[in-house]
Amino acid sequence: MIVREDSFRHKGLRQRLVQELQKKGITHPRVLEAIGRVPRHLFIDPSFSGFAYQDKAFPIGAGQTISQPYTVALQSQLLEVQPGEKILEVGTGSGYQAAVLVAMGAKLFSIERQKELYDRTASLLPKLGFLLRQYWGDGYQGLPDVAPFDKIIVTAGAPYVPKELLTQLKVGGLMVIPVGENRQVMTRIRRLSDIDFEKEAFGDCAFVPMLNGIEKK
Ligand code: SAH
Q1: Does the keyword Nucleus apply (predicted)?
Q2: 8-205: which CATH architecture?
């Protein structure tokens, strides 16, 4: 894969995107700094790269989309990432959300069910300098051998909150997950104890669905 360049023009467009996200209510300094640093145009098809710094979702192939920058920023802000935290991401997709979390200092583990997308990001992210552990697998199962996690972020629309993921969250940890079928409610779950969880809602959103099992292409 050819790694394309990050020009002054791209950097300028990124700073404008950061200002737009601030206007839309993103306040966390490290989220804004990470969005300002990650070259989003390198995560999407070159034919869309002129639009990379608009606050929009785009197709990334394999019937999937790269999330809208506002959604990435909102989920990252709700996750309250602290440097060094062990974080699980379900739905690597383009790898953009993963790069933002790594830029914020997360020790990231990311799962993708589609082989084609897994292969692409496994090659792209290290080339761009974003280091994390990537897995081709089913996010409904989480990563029992690596758990527990400080934080869990799900970036596909989950019809329900998977129980396996709840059990892999540390007490005191947070999970941010869009819950619902066609449209979802952005939901944050805090694990209060072994058996108690607190839920908060942060508005409607629309994600591609979280699907069962793996896909070999
Ligand atoms: N975080 C991504 C968002 C991609 S869209 C980004 O920044 O681009 C959601 C992704 O979740 C898709 O790539 C889809 O294939 C993946 N996905 C859906 N169900 C999944 C599951 N059960 N396990 C792992 N990945 C899943």
Answers
A1: no
A2: 3-Layer(aba) Sandwich (3.40)
Nearest CA to ligand 1 atom 21: 139
SS (H, E, C) the chain: CCCCCCCHHHHHHHHHHHHHHHHCCCCCHHHHHHHHHCCHHHHCCHHHHHHCCCCCCEEEECCEEECCHHHHHHHHHHCCCCCCCEEEEECCCCCHHHHHHHHCCCEEEEEECEHHHHHHHHHHHHHCCCCCEEEECCHHHCCCCCCCEEEEEECCEECCCCHHHHHCEEEEEEEEEEECCCCEEEEEEEECCCCCEEEEEEEEECCCECCCCCECC
pLDDT by residue for the chain (217 residues), tens only, comes to: 455 789 999 999 999 999 999 999 999 999 999 999 999 999 998 888 889 999 999 888 888 889 999 999 999 999 999 999 999 999 999 999 999 999 999 999 999 999 999 999 999 999 999 999 999 999 999 999 999 999 999 999 999 999 999 999 999 999 999 999 999 999 999 999 999 999 999 999 999 999 999 998 7
Q: Which protein residue's CA is at the shortest distance from atom 18 of ligand 1? A: 210
Does the beta carbon of 184 sit less than 6 angstroms from any atom of ligand 1? Answer: no
